[in-house]
Amino acid sequence: MFHNFDFKHMLPSFSAKEKEDMKLYYAFSKEHEKEIQEKSLKEFQEHPIFGPLIKNIPQEIREANNKESDALLRAAIFEDNWEPYIKYSMMQGVQYAHMGLDFKAWYEIVGMVRRYYIPIMKRLYDHEAERMSSVGNGMNVLLDYAMCIIGESFIHERNRKIEQQNKRSEGMIKELESFAYIVSHDLKTPLRGIASLADWLTEDYKDKLDDTGKEYLDLLKNRVLRLESLIDGVLIYSRAGRVDIETEKIDLNILVKEVIDTAAFPPHVHIQINNTLPKLQVAKYPMIQVFSNLIGNAVKHNDKTNIEINIDCVEQSDDWLFSIKDNGPGIEEQFHEKVFQIFQTLKTKDEMNSTGIGLSVVKKIIDNVGGKIWIESKPGDGCTFFFALKKQLK
Fold first, then answer.
1. Where are the domains of the chain?
2. Burial category of 385 from C-beta neighbours within 10 Å (exposed 0-12, middle 13-18, buried 19 and up)
3. pTM for this prediction
4. In this structure, which topology does domain 8-169 adopt according to CATH?
């Protein structure tokens, strides 16, 4: 039941005074048990967490559980036999963990017990300060001890469940990655064969094909190449935002310049970095993907003779706010969210030779480090992509 959980350290070492006080409190609670139950019943039944639970448990089972718990508690207090009570309380904590309860609900119930008992103690022992102090101390010692037992077993079980879930998730991720690579390889092999066949037909039958036939073969090859790019894009998307990628201190001034140099844009593309970019503890390759996709999109979808792109960065209280602004055709507001959805493009895929994956990869990377990305744009007025990265990334 407790999965090798060692409870020996939970065995109490109460002082003689604390033991006597708990005996006084137990006797007091049994004497006034009916009064407390009558006062607290409605509040207990209306409690948002425990209320539905007790309604779903038959009364005879509740009474049997209470009787068992009381017998174990009595044996612990009066016979100093704590081990059975500890195991029973631990079982409660494990049950709460499996039921997905918020443990603070138990604190609320314990607070309710104290709230109802204290006025009774004051009423009965108004002129017996020492006795009231002893009963109150016995209540506090016992309830706090019970909370420690239940709380520790609850946390232990919750952590064990989380660890199991993490292991299952890691296994599933590895299986999916392996599956993705295998499928991509198996898909790419026949696609390359189709592309080669199209080349052979074009070369071997070029004298027999009319212009329409050649056009169809070119379309066939382009569709094959686009499908291959789509497969690569899906693989990139599946790996984007992985939290287990090693991070390092990256100077974004150097990284962005490398992205621009690698892209080798034509002379009519002018890219300006207006501010000094920060150094961030990030995973290098995903950050390259962010900037290369955003800058590449600003160039690819631009309709101007001279393309102007401005990269800015502003330091804010908790994060760095980056912006990439272009002088392109702009994007209507109704499409500001759509462009981040996988496989979504604003123009036909044949027209732009686009997979519709790039911006979804960017969003996934930024989301996974706790950042945020959005667009500000109007048709005919260019487009600005903003993204904020926390100074202390996840």
1. 8-169, 171-239, 248-390
2. buried
3. 0.48
4. Globin-like (1.10.490)
